[in-house]
Structure formats: structure tokens, C-alpha cells
Amino acid sequence: MAAAKIVNTSGKRKTSIARATVKKGMGRVWINKVPLELHEPQLAKFKIMEPVNIAGSKMEKLDIHVNVQGGGIMGQASAVRTAIAKGIVEFLEDKDLETIYRQYDRSLMVSDARRSMPKKPLGRGARKRRQKSYR
Length: 135
Hints:
Layout: E1 6-13, E2 16-24, E3 29-31, E4 34-35, H1 42-55, E5 62-69, H2 73-92, H3 95-104
Parallel strand pairs: 3-5
Antiparallel strand pairs: 1-2, 2-5, 3-4
Helix pairs in contact: 1-2
């Protein structure tokens, strides 16, 4: 008996990391065990739904479970959408869908590698310095 196909992918944005598991199902998406339909805020939900909406009818046979942690609300949303898009493409092995995603927004297929700079001495942050007073 052949094992059911399961694909694991990840997406990153700032300090958020999302891990998606894609398998055969009924077109449902869960984020941290909560259905996508109940996800708040609305703006983050719409951002997460982009790869699902673009895939359209191809999504009807897939279930996606996403675990996301770290960062803020919109950083998590960006990480989740990257993980979902990668998972759909890898599960379906669909090069046409991948090119559609890349043309729509490259960040759907490529995790954002930018990170904040480390703090330096003599300042409050990576670049800010203490002001000098000459009086």
C-alpha cells in the first residue's frame, strides 16, 4: 500500500517562521489550528488568502496546516503565504503555477532574507548614536 503524499514547506519574514504541511483533503486551511476563515485581522487574512485564491480550483483537493511563530501579525502573514504557496507548488508539481506566483509577487515563492542589524556600542541601536554636546 502506497503512503499518502505529504509535503512540508517553510516561509520566513523578519523573525516569523511558518511551517506548512500540505496533504490530500477538501480545500481547507488552518493556521495554528484555527481555520483561515476565522483568522484575524482581516488585512492579514486577505494577504494569506492570495496564494489560495490564485491557485483556484487546484486547491479543492488539498488540506494545509500551518504552524507559525515569532514576529508580529503582518510578518507572520507574509511567512504563512510563502509557506502555503511553496507547499501548493511542491505538492502539485506545477511549474505553470509557480511562474504565475512569481509574476504576481516574487515573495510568494522566496522567503525574505532581510534581518535587522545588530546593535553597536555607543548607541541605542544599530545606527543611532548618542548626541555630542559641546557646551
